């Protein structure tokens, strides 16, 4: 299950916006160069239409598509597909490489649930991560949707799923000094929106999870509920506020952080496959 | 009559009319509401669970704001032999339909519909998962 850390280091410490993607139709790995040219032309065409704000930049966008064989769960998964948009180097610049302006990654980490029953001609890469300006995400997304007859949807993460994440990640083994486990709640129905931030020492959080989890390597809904109830009870004891009535919108641990709008940051290379596997699962359940 | 939790204050016992139906409202966005309902259930006389109690789950339209597992609520319904209704109060059509359903149930529980009693609800209780 080990993923080559060098190849996948680009995934760490970046805020990724998540989407679920339905299977791609008639996608051929051998034609990546060709697709890159088509996508590049499509972006330039949109720029010519005057829809983009910085017309000059769009005309000089270089597209690169590549496969990342290391980024997948098992051999049943498709290798990840990386899309890189960089600005063409200025004539005066000595640097022959352009600057990276946008990054997109299609991947499948143990996504067998979706890939095993696919009809012929479909490629399953249900999780899409994007980093960079929204207008590029929209341009790239539209091209993929048009070319491969697929559908992109923002991946929303419910408070229930966020609870799973914080319980799972707070319980991870830590080798060095870790940052606090933080939960951010949004209180509904107030005139002024109120956010409550609840920070817990990572060792305390891990100690709590260790007393709750019965079988190492397995997590049940009951265990997550008990873990969260303990946190809520502790908070109520001190502040007389029922966090269970508020909406959990963001969780942050040393392993990763996740926001309910589908934005994640993965911080620890050791747990990268685990996090991607969970996100792939969420993407698949949003598709089905 | 609306109450945020049970038991009802005893001072007004003598002024209170007969209670025909108890609807426990659970907001799927708030785990607290489920806990509140669970503690309130302990204050309900056993005779009410013969068709005079139902659970109303609100907020189901917003799948992404879900804080409670639907399974947990269905288990609660099974444990107390009471129907579980799901609705979305933010949509007027569903709000109206749900109100009509509850009104119909109330008429039956109050004995206003000849030939049908609250006990019918218990025998009609079937979860679609059982099929």
TrEMBL record, chain A:
Protein name: Centromere protein L
A UniProt-annotated Pfam family: CENP-L
Alphabetical UniProt keywords: Centromere, Chromosome, Nucleus
Coiled coil: none
Entry similarity comment: Belongs to the CENP-L/IML3 family.
Annotated Gene Ontology cellular component terms: chromosome, centromeric region; nucleus
Gene responsible for this protein: Cenpl
Family annotation (PANTHER family): CENTROMERE PROTEIN L
Residues annotated as transmembrane: none
Compartments, record wording: Chromosome, Centromere; Nucleus
Keyword flag Nucleus: yes
Taxonomic placement: Eukaryota, Metazoa, Chordata, Craniata, Vertebrata
From TrEMBL, chain B:
Compartments where found: Chromosome, Centromere; Nucleus
CC per GO annotation: chromosome, centromeric region; nucleus
Signal sequence, start to end: none
InterPro entries associated with the record: Centromere_Cenp-M, P-loop_NTPase
Chief place of localization: nucleus
Keyword Nucleus: yes
Keyword Cell inner membrane: no
Keywords: Centromere, Chromosome, Nucleus
Cross-referenced PANTHER family: CENTROMERE PROTEIN M (PTHR34436:SF1)
Name of this chain's protein: Centromere protein M
Source organism of this protein record: Aegithalos caudatus (Long-tailed tit)
């Amino acid at each position: 299950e080990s993923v080559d850390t060098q190849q996948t280091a680009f995934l760490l410490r970046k805020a990724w916006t998540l989407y679920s993607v339905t299977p791609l139709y008639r996608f051929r790995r051998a034609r990546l160069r060709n697709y890159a040219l088509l996508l590049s032309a499509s972006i330039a065409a949109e720029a010519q239409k005057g829809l983009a704000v910085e017309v000059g930049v769009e005309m000089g966008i270089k597209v690169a598509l590549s496969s990342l064989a290391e980024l997948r769960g098992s051999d049943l998964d498709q290798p990840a597909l990386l899309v890189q948009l960089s600005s063409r180097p200025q004539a005066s610049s000595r640097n022959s490489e352009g600057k990276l302006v946008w990054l997109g990654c299609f991947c499948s980490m143990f996504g067998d649930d979706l890939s095993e029953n696919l009809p012929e001609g479909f490629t399953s890469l249900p999780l899409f991560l994007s980093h960079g300006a929204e207008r590029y995400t929209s341009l790239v997304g539209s091209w993929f949707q048009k070319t491969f007859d697929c559908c992109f949807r923002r991946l929303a993460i419910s408070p229930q799923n966020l609870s799973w994440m914080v319980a799972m990640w707070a319980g991870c083994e830590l080798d060095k000094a870790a940052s606090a486990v933080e939960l951010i709640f949004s209180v509904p129905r107030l005139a002024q929106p109120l956010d409550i931030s609840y920070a817990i020492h990572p060792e305390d959080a891990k100690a709590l999870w260790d007393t709750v989890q019965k079988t190492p390597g397995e997590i049940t809904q009951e265990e997550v509920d008990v873990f969260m109830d303990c946190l809520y009870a502790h908070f109520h004891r001190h502040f007389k506020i029922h966090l269970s009535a508020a909406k959990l919108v963001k969780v942050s641990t040393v392993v990763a952080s996740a926001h309910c709008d589908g934005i994640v940051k993965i911080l620890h290379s050791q747990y990268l496959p685990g996090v991607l596997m969970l996100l792939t699962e969420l993407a698949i359940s949003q598709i089905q | 009559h609306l109450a945020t939790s049970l038991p009802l204050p005893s001072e007004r016992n003598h002024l209170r009319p007969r209670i025909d139906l108890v609807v426990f409202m659970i907001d799927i966005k708030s785990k607290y509401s489920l806990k509140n309902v669970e503690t309130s259930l302990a204050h309900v006389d056993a005779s009410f669970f013969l068709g005079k109690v139902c659970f109303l789950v609100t907020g189901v339209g917003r799948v992404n704001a879900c804080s409670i597992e639907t399974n947990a609520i269905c288990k609660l319904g099974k444990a107390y032999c009471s129907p579980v209704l799901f609705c979305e109060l933010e949509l007027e059509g569903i709000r109206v339909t749900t109100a009509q359903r509850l009104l119909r149930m109330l008429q039956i529980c109050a004995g206003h519909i000849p030939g049908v009693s609250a006990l019918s609800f218990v025998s009609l209780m079937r979860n679609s998962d059982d099929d």
